[in-house]
């Protein structure tokens, strides 16, 4: 194989890949061939991959505008470029480790080193185009959840909570589910504000929605970084995927510039929100702007209107309130059943009530914390 081809990729942005670079350097820097070859073997061994598997992941997770454009609109010139790159990889994978070492000159140490496992690489352009159409390219193909503070950073292990894990509040969650379905099917959908008491499952609902719909990508933005939302809109608006931007625990002080920025990006700015983006936010405050003492003294003032104006800009305003005793114990019962805890209901409820008194209130969060606590006590045969 002519290793110079490794510098001629046209469709996939992989020229800086470490293993491709090692292969190229093996042939071009012969005095250090053993060093570069050992790096190839070491990387594959650490990853537990064959060469074909490594290159598969390299291509499907590469940031390729060519593949992304072809996924959106198939063009023969783009397909030709993709097939050319795939041909290079196929040629490299078909070259066994023994054959590759024999093609290098002047370093007998190479033949004492272990062979890597070539595996298989039998993909074509249609495979990578279809993958990109369904999963995106680059970082968005490899990860689904991100944080943003000027740079997108992937969340490698997002919360795995599901809708089935959440108890009660079905009316509220159905509104979010239906809105998300409209969004995913290119129907009119709304930005959502989930308001209510702490521990009632507002943030958990957003995370569970994300886990329910695999087509979604989610970007978490701190309320302190709201001022860079326009920048994020510009970045994500160019990508042919659906994004939920989530902002947790919204609250602003008087004259906070972020308040005006969020109002503008929701509704009222010349810059429109891209169609592939929605904002799902949570708050514990009905009046998101904290009132000053003067504002509290002015009944019916413009200040109060202003404090409500942000929540009015969300198309869906959904309320989660703390459960009463009956609702709390029903949640406890459901979580206990899911967890496999089987004790008399009277004993379960009595312990749950004592736990809620110690925690200072009842909520779905406290119910789940109680079950976790109880499970440990039962397993260790401790009193509860």
Commentary on this structure:
The protein has 384 residues and is α/β, with parallel strands linked by helices. The chain contains 17 helices and 7 strands. It has helices at 18-28, 33-47, 51-60, 65-72, 76-94, 97-103, 125-135, 139-142, 170-184, 202-212, 229-237, 257-266, 293-297, 302-312, 325-339, 345-359, 364-379; strands at 145-148, 152-154, 192-196, 216-220, 242-247, 277-283, 316-320. Strands 2-1-4-5-6-3-7 form a 7-stranded mixed sheet. Strand 5, helix 12 and strand 6 (277-283) form a beta-alpha-beta unit. Helix 15 crosses helix 17.
Topology:
Layout: H1 18-28, H2 33-47, H3 51-60, H4 65-72, H5 76-94, H6 97-103, H7 125-135, H8 139-142, E1 145-148, E2 152-154, H9 170-184, E3 192-196, H10 202-212, E4 216-220, H11 229-237, E5 242-247, H12 257-266, E6 277-283, H13 293-297, H14 302-312, E7 316-320, H15 325-339, H16 345-359, H17 364-379
Parallel strand pairs: 1-4, 3-6, 3-7, 4-5, 5-6
Antiparallel strand pairs: 1-2
Domain module count: 3
Distance between the termini: 70 Å
What percentage of residues falls in helices of 4 or more residues? 40-55%
Average pLDDT works out at 90
Low-confidence stretches: 292-299
What is the CATH C-level name of the largest domain?
Alpha Beta
CATH-level-4 superfamily name of the largest domain:
P-loop containing nucleotide triphosphate hydrolases
Strand order of the largest sheet: 2-1-4-5-6-3-7
Number of helices: 17
Quick rundown:
With 384 residues, this protein is α/β, with parallel strands linked by helices. The chain is built from 17 helices and 7 strands.
């Amino acid at each position: 194989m002519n290793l110079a081809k490794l510098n001629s990729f046209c469709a996939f942005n992989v020229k800086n890949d470490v293993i491709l670079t090692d292969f190229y350097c093996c042939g071009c820097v012969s005095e250090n061939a053993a060093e570069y070859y050992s790096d190839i073997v070491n990387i594959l061994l650490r990853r537990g991959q064959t060469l074909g598997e490594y290159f598969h992941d390299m291509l499907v997770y590469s940031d390729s505008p060519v593949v992304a454009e072809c996924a959106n609109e198939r063009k023969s010139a783009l397909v030709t470029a993709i097939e050319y790159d795939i041909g290079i990889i196929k040629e490299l994978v078909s070259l066994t480790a023994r054959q590759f070492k024999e093609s290098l000159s002047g370093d007998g140490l190479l033949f004492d080193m272990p062979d890597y496992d070539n595996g298989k690489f039998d993909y074509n352009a249609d495979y990578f185009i279809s993958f990109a159409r369904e999963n995106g390219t680059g970082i968005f193909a490899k990860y689904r959840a991100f944080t943003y503070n000027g740079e997108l950073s992937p969340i490698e292990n997002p919360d795995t909570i599901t809708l089935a894990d959440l108890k009660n509040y079905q009316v509220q969650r159905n509104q979010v589910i239906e809105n998300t379905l409209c969004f995913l099917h290119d129907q009119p959908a709304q930005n959502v504000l989930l308001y209510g008491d702490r521990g009632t499952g507002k943030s958990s609902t957003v995370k569970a929605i994300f886990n329910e719909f695999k087509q979604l990508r989610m970007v978490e933005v701190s309320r302190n970084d709201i001022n860079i939302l326009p920048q994020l809109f510009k970045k994500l608006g160019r990508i042919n995927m659906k994004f939920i931007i989530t902002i947790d625990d919204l609250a602003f002080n008087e004259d906070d510039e972020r308040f005006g920025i969020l109002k503008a990006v929701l509704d009222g700015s010349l810059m429109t929100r891209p169609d592939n983006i929605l904002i799902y936010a949570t708050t514990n405050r009905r009046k998101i702007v904290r009132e000053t003492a003067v504002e509290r003294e002015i009944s019916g003032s413009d200040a109060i209107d202003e404090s409500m104006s942000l929540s009015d800009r969300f198309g869906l305003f959904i309320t989660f309130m703390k459960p009463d005793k009956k609702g709390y114990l029903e949640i406890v019962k459901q979580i206990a059943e899911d967890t496999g805890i089987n004790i008399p209901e009277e004993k379960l409820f009595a312990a749950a009530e004592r736990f809620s008194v110690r925690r200072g209130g009842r909520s779905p969060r406290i119910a789940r914390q109680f079950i976790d606590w109880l499970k440990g006590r039962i397993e260790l045969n401790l009193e509860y």
